[in-house]
Amino acid sequence: MKKDKVKEIFDTTANSYDKTWEKLSPISNSLHLLMGAILSELPEKAKILCVGAGTGAEIIYLAKRFPTWNFIAVDPSSAMLDVCRTRLSDLGMEDRCEFYADYLENLSLPDTYDAATSILVSQFIDEKDSRIGFFRNIQRHLKSKGILINADLSNEIGSYEYEHILDVWSKMMSEGGVPQSIEKIRQSHKDGVSLLAQEEVSKIIQSAGFERPVQFYQMAFIHGWFCLKRS
Questions:
Q1: What is the pTM of this model?
Q2: Which of 55, 95, 177, 212 matches a 20 to 30 Å C-alpha distance to 17?
Q3: Is it the case that residue 221 has pLDDT exceeding 90?
C-alpha cells in the first residue's frame, strides 16, 4: 500500500482507533507482556525507539513497567501521535517521550538506542527492497547488540494453515466488534498489506543487518520476532 494511503487511513481513524479495537485488547496485552520480558535486562536508563508508535500502546505498557526508561515515538500520522501524546500526558509520562510525526528515514536521530519496536508496521510495505530498507533504518539507530522487536501479519497465502486461520480470524474479529467477511479479509491480504510467510519476514529482517530472528509470539495471523543487531 502506498505510504500516503496508509497515513490517510490512520489520520482518519486516530480518534476512534483505541475504542474500535478495545474488545481485542487481550491480543496486544499478551504481546506487551512478552515484550517486557524480552527487554527486561536492558540498562536502567534505557532509550527505546518506537517506529510506527501509533496511539502509544506499547510505550504506555513499557513506561509503566520500566519507570526509568525513555522513549522516542515515530509515526507519519500526526493524528495518531496526538492521541499518543494525550494518553501519556494523562498518565504523567509525557516528559519521558519525544514525538516525531514523520518517517524514520527522514529524521536525524542518534544511533544509540538500546532497543526498537515495530508493531504491525512493515506489513504495509509492498516492495521487498523497501521493506529491507525500513529495517535497515532501524538497525542504524541501535547500539551494538541492540534489540529489535517486530510484529507483523504473516502467513503463506493459500496454504492449508492460512485457510483455517482465515476462518478463525473472521470469527474473532466479529466477536471483537470489528466484523469482516472471509472474502474481505482475503482481499485485504492482497491489496492492503504485504502478507508474507514467516520465513520470508525473518529473511528480510536478517538482510537488514540483524541476527537470525526468534519467533516468540503468534496469535492467528499476528507473529512476533525479536533479534539483535548484528555486529
A1: 0.96
A2: 95
A3: yes
